[in-house]
Structure formats: C-alpha cells, structure tokens
Amino acid sequence: MAQLCEQIEDAIFVLDSNLRYLSVNASYELMIGYKESFLVGRPLGIYAAEFLSEEEQLILKEIKDNLRESGFYKLDFSMANRYGETIDCQITYRKICIDQTVFHVGMLRDMSAVVKDQKQVAHLLNYDQLTGLPNRKVFLSQASDVLLDTYQEVVIVRLNIDRYRNLASLLGSEGINTLIQKFVKRIKELHLEHLRCFSHFGGDDFALLFECQDGNMVRHQLDTLMQMCEIPFTMNGNAATNANIYCHISVGVSYFPKNDAQVTGLLSKAEKALQYVKQHGGDDIRWYDKTIEEATSGSLQLEADLRAASAEGQFIPYYQPKFLLDTGIITGFEALVRWQHPTRGLLKPKHFIDAILTHKLSFELFSQMANKIAHQLSEWQQQGFCQHICINADAAEFSHPEFFDMVSGLLVQHNIAACQLHIEVTESSLIQRHDDVRKQLNSLKELGVRLALDDFGTGYASLSYLQDYPFDFIKIDKSFISKIDTDRTQHAIVKAILDLADALDMHVVAEGIETEQQRDVLLDMGCKNGQGYWFGKPVPADVATEMLVKQYATE
Ligand code: C2E
Ligand code: MG
Ligand code: MG
C-alpha cells in the first residue's frame, strides 16, 4: 500500500491526532516543496508559514476545527507552496481510527490545470484571441448595461479597415494578424476620452462605445482616430511585404437616445452608416440619419440592376481616340464603359464602377467589354483599319481563373493580333500585389498583349509597380496635365516621368489634354502620345469608325 501511495499522482499525507506529520508521499513532497524527513513531527501548515496570509491562516484553523469535530473536511482553495507559487487545489481530510490510534489522512489534488482551463474557456468565450479585446457578446452585454442606467448619451461606433481583403492577400495570414495587432495597439495608445468599451468582432471588424454628456463630444475623438490612419504601419516581412502600409478606415456611428433606444438597433444603424461609407469609397466617417436608409435601399436596387445589366449585355464601350501630339493622327482608342440603363439612360463609370467591385461583377464587366471590343477590332480590320484598343481592367479581375483563357480565346476567335489589344490597369487596384497578378500580366505580355499602367502618380507605390510588373506604357494621370502650362511643379513632375519612361524604354501617354496650350507644352517636353477632350471625347463605335474613315481618306 505504501508503494502504491508513492506512485499515485495525488498528494497524500498522514497526520497524527495532534495534526503533526507522520508521513507524506512523493507527490506531496513535489507539490509542497518540502521533504518528508523535514515534515515529520512538524504541525500541519508549517511548510508555508511564511507565505500564509491572514485568510489562509483562518482556513487552516477551520480545517483543524472541522477535523477535530466531524472527522471530515473538504475544500477548494489556492495556497502557496515553499517557492511562493500559488496552487489551486482541492483538499480532503478524513479522520481514521486504527487500534484506537487516531490518524488524519489528507489528500491534496492539484486543480491548477482545471482552473486554468476554466479560465481559458471563459477567456475564449469572451475575448478575441488575436487582439485580447472583448468580443461581440461582451460588447452587447456591456452596451446594454450602460444603456440601462445611463443619464448621458451613448455613441456606438462601427469600424472596418478599407481594402482589408487586398491587404490580407498582400501580407499573408501572419502579416495581416500583425497589422491588426499593431492597429489595435495604436488605438489603445490614443487613450480616447469617454471610451467605455473597445471590442473586436473579428477580422477587420471593430466596435467602440462612448458615453458622455453630449454625443457630439465624440466627434473630436473620431477625428483623432482618422488622423491616426494617416501614419503608415511599417511591416517587416519578406521582400514583397517589406513596406509601409496605410490602414484607411471606414466608420459608421449611431447614438442614443436620438437614433434608437436598444443596443441591437443602435448597432445595426451604425452598421448601415458604415456600409454607406464603404460603398462611397471608404476612408470616411458617417453618422446615421434617415437619408442613409433611403440610400441603402437605393444601393440594393443598384445591385439588382447591375446583375441584370451583366446578364443582358447593357454595358457598352465608348471609344476615346489616342493621338500623336505632333500630327494629330489617331493611333488607337481607349474603350470606356458606359451603362445603357433601361430607365436612367447612359451612365458613366463613376455612377457604378465601385458597386461593380463591391458586388464582384468586375469579371462579368470585363468579359462583356472584351467581347464587344474584339468584335469591333475585327470589324475595323475588315474595313482595312489597323488599330489597337485599350481595355480597362481592375487587378481583381486577373485573379479570375478564366481570365487568361478568355482573352487568348477571343484573339484567336476574331483573328486579332495580340498587339492590337492593350490592357490598362490602374495603380490603385494594384495594391493587391498578389503573385497571381504578376503571373497573369507576364503571361499576357508573352502572348503579345501590351500593358499600360493607368493613372500613373496617383497610387500608393507608383515607382515600385514599374519595377515589379512588365508594363509597356505609362499613362500620366490627368491631374498632372490640368495646369501643365502654368504650374511649374506639374511641369517638373511630368518632365521627370518622361525621363524615367525614356530610361526604362517605356512609352508615355498623357491623359486629359483639354487645350491646345497643354498639347504644345507636352510636345515641347518630348511627349509623343496623348488623349483628351481637346482632340476627342469618348464616342460610340459608329462615330469612332467615322473618324477612322476620315483619317484613312486623307492619308
Ligand atoms: P481612365 O481609364 O483613366 O479613363 C479616362 C477618364 O478620363 C475617362 O472617364 C475619360 O472620359 C476621362 N477623360 C478623357 N479625356 C479627358 C479630358 O480631357 N478631361 C477630363 N476631365 N476627363 C477626360 P470615364 O469614361 O468617366 O472613366 C472613368 C474611369 O472609369 C476610367 O479612368 C477607368 O479607370 C474606369 N473605367 C472606364 N471603363 C472601364 C472598364 O471597362 N472597366 C474598368 N474596370 N474600369 C473602367
Ligand atoms: Mg484607362
Ligand atoms: Mg487614367
């Protein structure tokens, strides 16, 4: 029996009738930190006397009293061992009489793991693992508590990080987690006034709860939050992600008592305001009001209309000529989408292009445009006009598995040379610097399709894109051309871009030329190709064809 006791995991000890140690097993020695040889003959409790608090001494007294009176005692408690470590344990004592001699047998079970598990489970249920912030459940209950007995105004804020998915694919899962942790740390360090709860609902989804005399007092705190996002986060990762990342945010706000009296109502109104911001390009704050409700139902209608437009082919290309600045000869056209809306008439991209991205319809748009453009090219070819057409694409479209096959299939089907098709990618869409995009662009380039970097100078990392992707053309954004004849800075920037392109063997197209003076200045600077209202606005296919007929007649 003594041997069995030595092997058992629970700590066992035997005391005499005066509660002095007679014997302890190995587990007891381990747990308490004293050897049996030291303990034998000493009174219970001796081992940790110097660590015992007043409360613990009371417990010890209670144990002694109970044993004397009832012969049995059981208790869950935390105690300190010889090394000052706290052990959560369960202790049972039993009084046993053998041959009229009284023994007290004690069993001590280390419950630390169980208690730790319980604490961990509670933590898991209530806190976000990554950030340690309270989760949605806790937020809801804290918000209800605040609303129940507040005499003040309560502001509920919903916050998302813009282009989160792009950032996640750029940084990878570890990188995005680090970014989120850095983001949370920064918000905490702002020590926002009146903040009662800062919660992480998961992903890029956060909520904040403020309580103060006047909800408007929170406006200033939210401005501080937006300003925080102007400073980039430095990410140290592999070469592709070694970068300064800007985390712009979209924020939706609702407040009690004006917008709603219930937490769920307030949350959903803040959510609607948030969605409104996101649909309008993000990077902004919006306080809930009635007009958002109307806009939301409008956006649902827009989504339904867009799906119908995709299915019924309502997207049509308009063609804007690109020309040689010195002779005015048309070198090709840029296809710009127009939506022939059944009730609202002809719509420009600014009315729907963001919604196309939001509702993941960009590939449908691209394939519809590419089909119509391929038809047009082959029609012009039959009329003897050898032209190229540029099609605009968002980098998101490249990740579509059928993208490459669709483009190469169209070229074969319509008997078009690959170099007659140019694809323009905007800088801003390239923030999703996925390997996929690079691969797709390289394959297109190998096929012979020409590639242009659109809106050059307006994105995050213009120069690095030139290095990373195989572009043939740079399109200088119209914002650099608008005052080129009067503004020295614009002039210097465009000159620098022209020199850079020259050094990299790339062609340049200046966008948005509206006056003859702008054309003249650009020509003087050595820019050869341009596009803009001065030479020609985007026009339907038949008008573009007439332009070509005229040009070829005079040649
Ligand atoms: P972008 O590709 O940079 O196209 C040039 C935009 O500038 C066009 O606007 C064009 O009409 C306008 N523009 C051209 N010349 C001038 C000028 O002299 N002055 C001024 N102020 N504007 C000029 P649009 O057609 O409204 O297109 C806007 C943007 O929508 C395009 O910018 C492009 O990024 C996007 N987009 C157009 N079509 C498509 C498409 O089929 N797919 C995708 N993904 N995006 C498209
Ligand atoms: Mg373009
Ligand atoms: Mg452009």
UniProtKB/TrEMBL annotation:
Q: Which CDD domains match?
A: EAL (cd01948), GGDEF (cd01949), PAS (cd00130)
- The name this protein carries in UniProt is PAS domain S-box-containing protein/diguanylate cyclase (GGDEF) domain-containing protein
Domain named GGDEF is located at 152-290
InterPro entries from the xrefs? Cyclic-di-GMP_PDE-like (IPR050706), EAL_dom (IPR001633), EAL_sf (IPR035919), GGDEF_dom (IPR000160), Nucleotide_cyclase (IPR029787), PAS (IPR000014), PAS-like_dom_sf (IPR035965), PAS_fold (IPR013767)
Which species expresses this protein natively?
A: Psychrobacter pacificensis
User: Which Gene3D superfamilies does the record associate with it?
Assistant: 3.30.70.270, EAL domain, PAS domain
Domain EAL span(s) in chain numbering: 299-552
List, for all copies, the residue spans of the domain called PAS. Answer: 1-71
In terms of PANTHER family, this protein maps to: CYCLIC DI-GMP PHOSPHODIESTERASE PDEF, OXYGEN SENSOR PROTEIN DOSP
Pfam families (UniProt xref): EAL (PF00563), GGDEF (PF00990), PAS (PF00989)
